[in-house]
């Protein structure tokens, strides 16, 4: 009897310890939305012979990254039926096809359910949905490229509620499609919508009822809504085509607004906060703001703005803001770049982890840096489908290893034709989940597997 009890307790203990090492990736950029991977017992370098593939699942077109939650993987894709994809940044592709939300088994890749609907596209770079699903409390929220916002039962795929931005709010689809990942905040789902007075709309996350709406702009842009806290006051940060704004997330009340107009309406990457400073950057614009809160009234003032010799101007690549530096890929040079927090000075830049040929010239080179805990170690998926482990410090980029995990299946004509993977991966339960336009791949990152 004692042995049986001991064995049972040991099993329970091991299960609890094992689960403590694992973590889901239920939305874009991880559970906390900060591009940080917090699991233990993961690989710290690339093993000889590369990494093991757990499974592959067939997919259609899409830039939508995977989300992983409660034993399931969620992703969106597009099955094109007619029309050509030109990848012309200045003109839309006209396509007919089916947009889908898929739910797969996390361990096997087998399809659990799908939700599909006919949807014509008229967006530039028309290779499928852009937004990563958001999974929360048994529901899954998905946003299609033409503005279909869906709330589905995460287990069955049943539609709970839905919105069509063009019909419900008179929103025009931006040139590169709706791309701002929806945000769950308390009892609301906050989404970038568009239309007069409705750049951002907060919906009841369970019923879809509108709670509030706010802001008007020439274009809603592509930047996801995000929550920051400064001096114990929460703020909803919205960057549209004309300005970066701080709002009361409960009511939509505008706290402050600072003009910041990126080229082509390209407000894309989420602003990043460190301490009392907020970095916002995109095509042609980069600024660091000081957050203030005088007499309970939040505000912001500009500390510096970038010029042709300073800062970093991200488009596809997310931003990392540490206590020491700001890191991202510059859209003009395609170089992973480190920037001084104090004045925007470029500390170093390199195309080595971004472009297939580091000597190649091209714009909008893409790599997705994910920080490992609170360290200088980063896991980087680049546009060539390589996983790189490297250390980033204000002094240098130091690569520890790289390996091919998926093949580029799309192309870009930005500064010359290149084959690319432009979809942010998920790091969940010691596994890398990464997709191209043909498949989703699960790659083993458990240190005990090698």
Quick summary:
This protein has helices spanning 2-21, 165-169, and strands spanning 36-37, 53-58, 67-69, 72-82, 93-105, 111-118, 121-123, 134-136, 139-143, 148-153, 159-164, 183-185, 188-192, 200-204, 210-214, 226-230, 233-239, 243-247, 254-259, 272-274, 277-282, 285-294, 297-305, 320-321, 326-329, 336-339, 346-350, 367-372, 377-382, 386-392, 397-404, 410-412, 418-420, 426-428, 431-435, 439-444. By secondary structure, it is mainly β. The chain starts with a helix and ends in a 6-residue tail after the last strand.
Please characterize this protein's 3D structure.
A hairpin with a 4-residue loop joins strand 28 (367-372) and strand 29. Mean pLDDT is 94; it is low at 1-20. The longest helix is centred in the N-terminal third of the chain and has 20 residues, at 2-21. With 450 residues, the chain is mainly beta. It has a domain at 25-159: Thrombin, subunit H (Beta Barrel). It is built from two helices and 36 strands. The two termini are 37 Å apart. The chain is globular and about 60 Å long.
